[in-house]
Amino acid sequence: MNAPEPGPGDELPAVAPQLRALRRRAGLTLETAARSAGLSPAHLSRLETGQRQPSLPMLLALARIYGTTVSDLLGETVAERDSIVRASDMEPTHAGGWTYVQAGSSGRGMQALRVRVPYGTQGDIVRVHPGEEWLYVLKGRLRLRLGDTVHLLAPGDSAHFDSLTPHRLAAEDHDGVELLFVHTLLQSPTATLCLGHLTGELP
Q: In whole angstroms, how far apart are CA 118 and each of 4, 26, 60, 124, 181?
C-alpha cells in the first residue's frame, strides 16, 4: 500500500529473520522471490535485514510465495491447532500502517484475519494470485477494485471473489475501514504469486 515506509526503529523484530529463513526453506533465490512478489531484489533484501517494514499486502504476498502463513512470517507460534480462537490470546500486529489480528488457527487451508485499513494506504499494486478471498465490512466504507470495476462497500456488505481477478483494497473514509478477511493459502512453497503495478489512481 502507499503508506509511508517506517524507519528501521519501527520494524517488526521477528519479520526480518523469518523472511530470509522461509525464503531459503522454499529454495528461492532473492532475485526469484523478489520477482514473484513484484519487488526489486534490493527492496526484498532491505525487508530481510530489517531496514524496511513490510505492509500487510506484502506479508500476504510473501506468505503465499513461501507456502506459509503471515503468522509464520512474524515468528508467531501456536502450541496446538485449536478449533477455538480466544480474543484475549490474539495480539494486534501493525504492518505498513495496517493493523490485523489473527481470527483463525494456523496450519489450516485458509487464513482468517481481522484487518484495519487506514485512510491513505490505497496501495500501488494490484494483486493477482490463485485462490479465493472473502471479506466482510465491519466498520467504515471499503473501496474494492475488482478488475476494471470499483465497488463501494458499507458495513454489513461482503465480497467473495476469485483471487485471479486483479484486486485492490482502500479505505474510503478518513476514519479507515475494519474488515473480516479470509483467504485460501497456497500449499506449495514454489507456487507463484503475480503482482503488477496499476497505472493511475483509483477513480
A: 12, 32, 17, 15, 15
Distance (Å, whole) CA 27 – CA 183: 24
CA gap 83, 41 in Å, rounded: 39
Q: Over the stretch 145-160, which tens digit does the pLDDT of each residue have?
A: 998 999 999 999 999 9
pTM of the model: 0.54
HSE value, Cβ hemisphere, 13 Å, CA-based, for 166: 12
Parts of the chain with a pLDDT under 50 = 1-13, 79, 124, 187-203
CB 104 within 8 A of CB 133: no
Rounded CA-CA distance 2/198 in Å is 12
